[in-house]
């Protein structure tokens, strides 16, 4: 079992799952993380979305300010990680498409 998969992490994941909306998430994560960490995680998520949209590394590096090494690592996890990026990209895409269909009706 990886070191990060422990009772403390599981407690954290349960807390995250209990968040009800973006306002609660913003408050919780701002207390949990530094401003720099939040910015970094936002950039990593942006890079994952851009990679999923087949945007070249060089453009991702320029747009996000992440290093090419970090972008390569995100790409590796996107393709051969635990499936978390793919899960959320699919969920957000599904949610986005559902919202679009509702607006069209």
Order of helices and strands: HHHHHH
Oligomer: single chain
Shape: globular
What are the low-pLDDT stretches, counting only 5+ consecutive residues below 50? none
Q: How many domains is the backbone divided into?
A: 2
Please estimate the helix content: over 70%
**Which class best fits the helix and strand makeup?**
mainly alpha
Instruction: State Rg.
Output: 16 Å
Mean pLDDT value: 92
Total of helices = 6
Give the termini separation.
48 Å
Portion of residues in beta strands equals: under 5%
Number of strands: 0
The main β sheet shows up as: none
Q: What does this entry look like structurally?
A:
By secondary structure, this protein is mainly α. 78% of the residues lie in helices and 0% in strands. The protein has helices spanning 7-17, 22-32, 35-52, 57-64, 68-80, 84-104. Helix 3 runs antiparallel to helix 4 (57-64). The radius of gyration is 16 Å and the shape is globular. The protein starts with 6 loop residues before the first helix and ends with a helix. The model has no long low-confidence stretch (mean pLDDT 92).
Entry keywords:
single chain; 105 residues; mainly alpha; 6 helices; 78% helix; 0% strand; globular
